[in-house]
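Most newcomers find our protein records easier to grasp once they have seen one. To make this concrete, we reproduce a full record directly below:

===
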Amino acid sequence: MVENALNPVDLNPVDETLGLEPFDLHYGDSFADPRISFRLVGKESGPVVAVLGGISAHRMVTGQGEGWWPEMVGPGLGVDTRQYRVLGIDYLGGRGGSSTPSAGGRFPPISSFDQAAALSRIVRHLGLKSLHAIVGASYGGMVALCFAQRYAALVNHIVVLSAADRGQVLSTAWRSVQRQIVREAIARGDGAAGLKLARALAMATYRSPVEFALRFGGAPTRTADGFRFPIEDYLFARGDDYVQRYRAESFLVLSESIDLHAMDATQVHTPATLIAVREDQLVPFIDMQALSARLGGPRQLIEINSIFGHDAFLKEAAALTPIIKHALAEHRT
């Protein structure tokens, strides 16, 4: 059987949960019994590419119905599983099999440096000399930058989509409100209701005004409770969907981790391909320009336009595929 994007064959998946040695987290807390879950798919002898997404992402990177990036990772796609072995992880504190907060439980603050530390332990566990590349989008781009700063010998190239070296204050303002909504809901014993509202609010920051005007610019309808606007149905549907797949406590941990993110780009000498979206409200183009200026190694900043804003990495496969393919091929050794 010929492997291709339309009819993929067995991608030789390997799932594993790795128990880590206790280590001190970036903000001083101790992690006594950490674990990190990961998945490998693709060509078994191929160079290994770690693919990391936003805070909702997980180790299932490819595959319709289970993968969070099926349009970009797979046979013949931007990260071609016929050429590369693809590594996906469950973030510390997130969804999946890695260490995560229990319902109503406390969990230490997690830095993007801590995610990078966990990834470095996977690389060493697998006996790899280095990763061929890390492709990181949103939060995953932050982790890629931290990895390149701390573990330069373990990665040959980073591809960073819609992520910068430090947080953007307006973005923190939006996320702070989201977290407070969730905290108050947890205190009332209904964390899911708070997470639904927080996700609905988050969706309004992920996309662009142009997209919303095109899709939801119609007139409101009157109900017994007042008027309902077309955008409301979309936002709250996304919130309902999110609470089926994610937990309020994990959202708090990783949303905070985004806003705590700060690293020294001048210490990154790994070749970097940066992909910025002009319409991104959360990571404005000017922030990625500033990141590019501060990086200490070879870099290329590529700008795209998309009405999908910060979510362009999930929606613009046609535009991103040749960029990522070229970046991975250019630095192949």
